[in-house]
Amino acid sequence: MILRERLSPDLSEFLRYLASHEEAEGSLPTLSELSRELGISVAGLREQLEVARALGLVEVKPRTGTRRLAYSFAPAVRQSLGYALALNDKHFQKYSELRNHIEAAYWDEAVKLLNDEDKTELKNLVARAQEKLSVVQVPHEEHRRLHILIYSRLDNPFVTGLLEAYWEAYEAVGLNMYAGGIDYLQEVWGYHATMVKSICNGNYDAGRKALITHIELLAHRPGS
């Protein structure tokens, strides 16, 4: 039995339907029609639909109805991580450690997939960040975009989903705000510049060393 068939009994009727109907990316039947087809009540189906929405698996719009979305791991992680942070914001440090290991582990694979357009954008992000730092602005959007872009060519929705959720949690705990002082931020972006230069020169080992050193700065950030 293939893996898909072994796992499907653990899914709700609605999720099994979504997984086995490619045409669902266009538009799903009405709830009453699905209720009859799946053999469950409309109320039960509505509950299952809400779970699918929370997981980012479907989109529901008033006029166009319900359709299946391309798979993303990020919404599921976002829900669980958000709950973990609500319980105890110290969970962010544990998740941050996970993110650090993921980025280091996938560095070589990720950077080798980047094209010339990606490399140009990385250099532009560093330049824009340095401009902001010169007038004492926090280049958070550039920070987030740079890291996400480096791993964007990986054909792995679980890796990209975990990394995307990290940056939302980063903002949720307030690390996108000005903290640590301008000297700290300039040091961080010095490492970013080294990472990007190393990527463009094909010196991936040097870039990985700069990555590891710079992500360790967060634990020793002034005021952390």
Note the main attributes of this structure.
11 helices; elongated; 66% helix; Arc Repressor Mutant, subunit A; Four Helix Bundle (Hemerythrin (Met), subunit A); mainly alpha; 224 residues; 2 domains
Structural notes for this entry:
This protein is mainly alpha-helical and 224 residues long. The chain folds into 2 domains: 3-68, Winged helix-like DNA-binding domain superfamily/Winged helix DNA-binding domain (Arc Repressor Mutant, subunit A, Orthogonal Bundle), CATH 1.10.10; 89-220, Four Helix Bundle (Hemerythrin (Met), subunit A) (Up-down Bundle), CATH 1.20.120. The chain is built from 11 helices and 2 strands; from the N terminus they run ααααββααααααα. It has helices spanning 3-7, 13-20, 31-38, 42-54, 74-87, 91-111, 116-134, 140-150, 157-172, 181-201, 204-215; strands spanning 58-61, 65-68. Strands 1-2 form a two-stranded antiparallel ribbon. Helix 7 (116-134) runs antiparallel to helix 10. The protein is elongated. The model has no long low-confidence stretch (mean pLDDT 89).
Brief sketch in words of this structure:
This protein is mainly α. It has helices at residues 3-7, 13-20, 31-38, 42-54, 74-87, 91-111, 116-134, 140-150, 157-172, 181-201, 204-215; strands at residues 58-61, 65-68.
CATH superfamily of the largest domain: GntR ligand-binding domain-like
Got a strand count? 2
The major pleated sheet works out as:
2 strands, antiparallel
Number of contiguous helices: 11
What is the H/E order? HHHHEEHHHHHHH
Under CATH at level 1, the class of the largest domain stands as Mainly Alpha
Strand order of the largest sheet: 1-2
Count of domains = 2
Distance between the termini: 51 Å
Using the 3D structure, state the CATH architecture of the largest domain. Answer: Up-down Bundle
- Predict the CATH topology of the largest domain: Four Helix Bundle (Hemerythrin (Met), subunit A)
- What is the radius of gyration? 21 Å
Structural class: mainly alpha
The percentage of residues in β strands lies in under 5%
Estimate the helix proportion, in percent. Answer: 55-70%
* Mean pLDDT, all residues: 89
Low-pLDDT parts are: none
